[in-house]
Amino acid sequence: MSQVEKQLDETKAQIESEIPDHVSVTDVKYEGPELVVYTRHPKQFAGNDDLIRRLASSLRKRITVRPHPDVLSDPSTAEERIREIVPEDADVSSLEFHEDTGEVVIEAEKPGVVIGRRGSTLREITREVGWTPEVVRTPPIESSTVSNVRDFLKQEREERRDILERVGRTIHREEMADEQWVRITALGGCREVGRAAFVLNTAETRVLVDCGDKPGAEGEVPHLRVPEALGAGAQNIDAVVLTHAHLDHSALVPLLFEYGYDGPIYCTEPTRDLMGLLTLDYLDVANREGRSPPYESAQVREAIKHTITIDYGDVTDIAPDVKLTFHNAGHVLGSAVSHFHIGEGLYNVAFSGDIRYDDTRLFDGAVNDFPRVETLVLESTYGGDNDYQTDQEDSERKLLEAIDEAYDDGGKVLIPTFAVGRSQEIMMVLEEAMRTGDIPEMPVHLDGMIWEATAVHTTYPGYLRDDLRDRILHDDGNPFLADQFNRIDGGEAERREVADGGPCVVLSTSGMLTGGPVMSWLRHLSDEPESTLAFVGYQAQGTLGRRIQNGRDEISVRSRDDAGRTETLSLEMDVETVDGFSGHADRQGLENFVRTMSPRPDKVLCVHGDERSVQDLSSSLYHDYDLRTFAPKNLETFRFE
C-alpha cells in the first residue's frame, strides 16, 4: 500500500471517529489540494453547520463533501425544489447536474443571494435534495472568454478529475529529502522588464513562478532549459504559480506543456480566464505578423485544463513541504502577491508579482501583511530614483484636459493601453467625467480585446473595490454599460469611418505599440496635428511606444495590403504622457510597501525593472531601511536556510 493510500485510510478512520454514528463515509479522495469526502448522508452533513468546519480544522485540509451517486434525487425534481429554495431576486439563469460528482452548478446574476448568509441557502439545498451546489455568476456583459472556459472545463470534467487526483497524490506524497534548504533561481525578469520566471526550490520540491515573454524583444524567452528548470525534465517541476495574466508573466505558460509539463497551474479564477484570452490573442498576433508562434492553441487548452484556482487568503498545500497563499496585489484583475510557507516553519518567501500599493478606481492597494516573511522578491518597474508618478487626481485632470482640448480642436484622442486593467480604469474616469459634465459627451471606441476583458471584469466583481462591485451588481449603475462606449467590431472599415468622423476617444491595444489594432489607428490619425496620442502606461525599452516618448516623429508600420512590407509615417499628433494610471507602484509606493510590511523581511530581491531601477531601489532599501538587498542577474541562484 502506498503512503498516500495509508494517509487516506487513516484520514477516513479519523473522520468516522469524529462524525455521528448514523452518518457514513463511503470514500475519501484527494483532488488537487482538497480532500473530498463521499457520503450516503449529505443531508446530515449539511444539517450540522459546524461538522465540516471542525473536520477541516482537525485535519488541517480544505474539505469538500459530495453525495454518493446512489442517494441523489432525480435532477428534474431537485431543480424544481432548488428554484423554490433560492430567492427570486438571485435571477438564476441555469442549473446543470453532474451525477459523477453529485454537484449541481447554479448560474445566477446574484450568486450571493444563492449562497445565503454564511452559506445557509447552500446548506438548505443539500439538506433538501442531497446534491452539492456550486455557484457561478452570470456575466452582466456577455463574455465569450468566460463561456468558453466554463464550457471547456465542463467537457473535460472526467479528465480534469483524473488530473486533480494525480496532483492530490503528488501533493500528499511522502517526503524523501533529508536536507532542508530553500533556493531561488532567476530564469528571467532580472535587470529587465518582462519574461518574468523564477524557480523556487526546496530539497523536496520545485515550483516555477510565472513564465512570460519580453515586450518588444522577440525571441528573448526565460532560461527554461537550465538544470534548475526544465533541463532536468519537465516532470521535475511540481507546480507552476501564476501571479497574474499579463503576457510578460503568462505568455509562455502554455509552452511548458509543449515541453512535456503535465502538472498544476495555481492562480486566481479571473487570472485563469484572462490567461486564456491573452495567450490566444498572443498566438493570433504572431500569425498575423508572419511570426512562428512558440506553441499552438491546444497548449492553451491544456494550461486551462490543468489550472487550480485559489481565492485570496486561502492557505493551500501545493507540495508536501510548501503551502501557498494568494493576496490582492492591486495591479490587475485577480493579480496576487504569492506567499510561500515552506516546511514546518522553515522559511517564508513572498513574490510580489506586479503590485500597486495605493488604491485605484478598480482595486484596493496591495496587501503586505503576512504571518511571516523572511525574503521578499519585489518588482522594481518604477524603482528608479526619479520614478515618481503624478497623483492620480492630477493624472485624471491632465488626461481630461487633453481630451477637452482635442475636442475643441475637432480632433481625436488615441490611448494605447493594455486590454486588462488600465483600459477599465480609463473607462471609469471617462464615464464619470461625461456623466458629471467635466468633459463633453463623445463616443469612446474600444478596440482589440478591451471589451472582452471588460466583460471578464464584470464577471468577477468580488475582486474589485466594494463600491465598484456594488455598482456592477445593479444594472442601472454599471459604469461599463454607459451609452458612450462602443465596441469596434467592424474591423478596418469601422476604424476608417471613426477616423473620418468627429471628435472621440479611442482606447486600443497594444499598450506599448508593439502590434495590434493600435497600429491601424496610427496609420489613420498620425498626420492630424489636432489629435493627441496619450500614453497612460509603462513603455518598455525597445518598444515603439518608448521611442515615440523619446521624441521619434517618424514611425514604421505594416503596409495597408499587409503583404509584409512596411511604410513610414510622419507623426504629427500631439504626444502626451500621463503618469499615474499605471498598475505598478512608483518608487514611493514600492518603498511604502516595504516600509509598512508586516513583518519586515530580512532580505529583498529587486527584480522586474531595468538595470538602473533595480539598483536604485536595492540601494535605497539597504541604506534607508537596513535590509539586505540584492539586484539579481538572470541565472543567479540564492540559497536561504
Instruction: Look up the CATH topology of the largest domain.
Output: Metallo-beta-lactamase, Chain A
Principal-axes shape call: globular
How many independent structural domains? 3
- Rg from Cα: 26 Å
Quick check: average pLDDT? 92
User: What fraction, in percent, of the residue positions are helical?
Assistant: 25-40%
Could you explain the architecture of this structure?
It is a single chain. With 641 residues, this protein is an alpha/beta fold. It has three domains: 155 residues, K homology (KH) domain (GMP Synthetase, Chain A, domain 3, 2-Layer Sandwich), CATH 3.30.300.20; 269 residues, Ribonuclease Z/Hydroxyacylglutathione hydrolase-like (Metallo-beta-lactamase, Chain A); 183 residues, 3-Layer(aba) Sandwich (Rossmann fold), CATH 3.40.50.10890. Helices cover 34% and strands 21% of the residues. It is built from 21 helices and 28 strands. The strands form six sheets. Strands 12-11-10-9-8-7-28 form a seven-stranded mixed sheet. The longest helix is centred in the middle third of the chain and has 20 residues. It starts with a helix and ends with a strand.
